[in-house]
């Protein structure tokens, strides 16, 4: 092989190697910039839920997930989504909730039910029990109080706990017969419909993220591309 041929082969070999390295550098920077932007969107969405004041906000933040797809070539993708979109939309849009069968909606009295929700049995294999049945198991027979032009009520005749002020327990048969020591409590408020407060801004956060995606990914791409010239890019998990 002549010297000119050897030189040509060496140049071609180095050129191919540099092209491949450059392609990998571009792909890595593009993936890193897109995945980084998706992670930021997830963090902002979770922060909005955490600061919302919802009773189960800490648990609800974990339902905001991100899934990254490296794919092949320069077409990576990211998806930021909620595992419970119905709840998200309800508190983003101030949805009006109505009973499916046109009956009353039961709103637990927070003075009676800690946290304003009816606790359900957590034992394995426990039978599913409806809300009214759970309330009667705890307080006894409920009584309907209709109030025209006002919120109607479901009340119970109970005894106050001597050891735990503000707590109530089911009255004995004797107490129910004599009326001694009984007190009436509101167990549920009854309404035909309820409008949820607008407590989440997820739709605003997502729309803003979509609007700024192009410029933000470009900005991050430059940073990651420059870093890739000296150190390998760290690729995060594909699902979180």
Tally of extended strands?
9
- Unreliable spans: none
What is the domain tally? 2
Q: Please tell me what the overall shape is.
A: elongated
Largest sheet: 5 strands, antiparallel
Distance between the termini: 56 Å
Mean pLDDT: 82
What would you report as the Rg, rounded to the nearest angstrom?
31 Å
Total number of helices:
6
H/E topology pattern: HHEEHEEHEEEHEEH
What do you see in this structure?
There is one protein chain. The protein has helices spanning 3-50, 57-61, 85-92, 131-139, 173-178, 202-228, and strands spanning 64-69, 77-82, 96-98, 105-108, 142-145, 152-160, 168-170, 182-191, 193-195. With 240 residues, the protein is α+β, with helices and mostly antiparallel strands. The protein folds into 2 domains: 8-93 and 197-228, no CATH class; 96-120 and 130-195, no CATH class. Strand 6 and strand 7 form a beta hairpin. Helix 1 (3-50) runs antiparallel to helix 6 (202-228). The chain is elongated. The mean pLDDT is 82.
What's this, in brief?
With 240 residues, this protein is an alpha+beta fold.
List the defining traits of the structure above.
20% strand, 5-stranded antiparallel β-sheet, two-stranded antiparallel sheet, 240 residues, 6 helices, 43% helix, 2 domains, single chain, alpha+beta
